[in-house]
Amino acid sequence: MQLHRNTTKLRKTCLAWGVFGALAWLAARWVGANPDHLYHGKASFFEVVSLATVAVSLLSWLMLLWPFVIEVDAGGLTLRLRGITTRLPWESVESLTITRVGESWDAPTIKMCLAPEVKLGGRVATKRDGRRIYSLLELKDFTIEPEEVIAVLRRYGGGRVDAQEYLQHRAAKRVVARFMRGDEVRADPHLAEYMAAQRSIEAEKREELSSGDGQEPGRWC
Description:
Shape: globular
Radius of gyration: 23 Å
Order of helices and strands: EHHEEEEEEEHEHH
């Protein structure tokens, strides 16, 4: 199963910001040419900011020329990022977590933590406890719905994929929306499916622990 970036949507976003920056630059030039304008003294600053916006938009658009594909199967992940293809067996992937930015769930991101000494090409990592952590892509920037992305990753990655907090947030928003519309409030199917699978995974872990050496396995980062 392949997960693709919604490149068309992102290119439109880059183009919109580029056009905005160009228009802002023209406006700043006009302000600079009118000494009686209230913001005449700040025109040069606005010119620099607008040109920087255009430059960042252009760079972002060019970076989208490289494909972004995550292929998920029973053996692991194959990632094609910025012209580099990396194969990661599941044994080298410690966790895939859906995280929020700050206190907001507006742009949840997939963060991947790899086993020690394992690297991913085409991405810059942060380090924690000797492990590399990579931010892959915001859920909303795939070609399919966020819940579908999570379902694909869980199908093969199992307990390595942690999306419970995000799915609870989405489920709560749906409940509130249905209540405000006066519709029947029902359990969210995506969250229910996730929790059922999670209970099964935890039961398997307890069974393995009871039949093993009695030592609890290490936690994923």
